[in-house]
Amino acid sequence: MKYILVTILALMLSSCFSAKGLPLKSVKTEITTNNTETNQLEENLETLKESVSKTVTENTKAATRNTINIDHSSLHNLLQKYVKDNGNVDYKGFKSEINTLNIYVNYLATQIPTEKWTIQDQLAYFINVYNANTIKLIVDNYPTKSIKDISNPWSKNRIKIGIENYSLADIENGILRKMNEPRIHFAINCASIGCPKLLNKAYTKDNVMALMEEATIGFINNDNKNKISADSIKISEIFKWYKNDFTQNGSLIDYINTYSKTKINTNTKVNYKNYDWNLNDIK
Q: Of 118, 180, 196, 227, which one has the greatest count of Cβ atoms within 10 A?
């Protein structure tokens, strides 16, 4: 019965939220498209040689016109000031610069993703949307002992993108999870000790893949979050709540072994730690 309830919950989480018309891309889709384009270019190489100079020039001009430059520097500066290396957050510090945070959040609301955005543009944007608005939620209700003490922290529409209103759950389940990139679970932060730590860097289109990798490796190998040995594991409930995201190409242990410094035997029983919802405030 417990397994059935978890399965139903997972299906609800993945299906009840909408991107509300945003033109989302996914990692798998983009990789497939790029491979197809590469094959086609190889087949037509001889033909293309005759006009390569003209093509390069035109493509360069088009790329310049279509470059997406979302400025995440103000968030980066705030994170550098008020997030410790261990991920604990100085919410009082953020409160002292709430105007700067609000300006950034309002700026993101005016930057509406289009078909021109790459998967990197979209991932960086929506991760920062989630994290910045979570920090704002805590600061607006500070002091609080837990995000769960705030009324409807994930389901209430508090986030604006263009003319549409979104909740944190919309951003996570209706957008980020549909981009076929499980590492987003280690990049977004729910303001709790049990969460993957909030990095003190903003995500950008240039660093998003590397930072997600850093966040994933850091979380999986953090003994406070996961207890891992070859034949015994007790891991974060994140891996239970979003199991389907991690098992698209193998088992849960296969996924963890991709990043874990200690390799787990394939027949090891999976146990889960109780999630710590206490606020990830500085001590």
A: 196
272: Cα within 13 Å, side-chain hemisphere: 13
* Tens digit of each residue's pLDDT (9 = 90 or more) over 102-123: 999 999 999 999 999 999 999 9
- The Cα-based distances of 55 to 35, 52, 66, 256 in angstroms read 20, 5, 16, 44
Pair 201, 210: CB distance under 8 Å = no
Which of 129, 138, 32 has its CA nearest to residue 89? 138
Residue 260 and residue 233: Cα distance in Å, rounded? 11
Per DSSP, the three-state class of 159 is strand
DSSP 192: B
Contact yes or no for 281/89 (Cβ under 8 A): yes
Q: b/e string for 137-155 if b means 16 or more Cβ within 10 A?
A: bbbeeeebebbeeeeebbe
**Average pLDDT value for residue range 251-278:** 98
2 is written with which tokens? 């417990």
Type of residue found at 206: D
Q: How many Cα atoms within 13 Å fall on the side-chain side of residue 113?
A: 23
Report field, pTM of the whole predicted structure over 0.85: no
Given a contact cutoff of 8 angstroms between Cβ atoms, the answer to whether 91 and 139 are in contact is yes
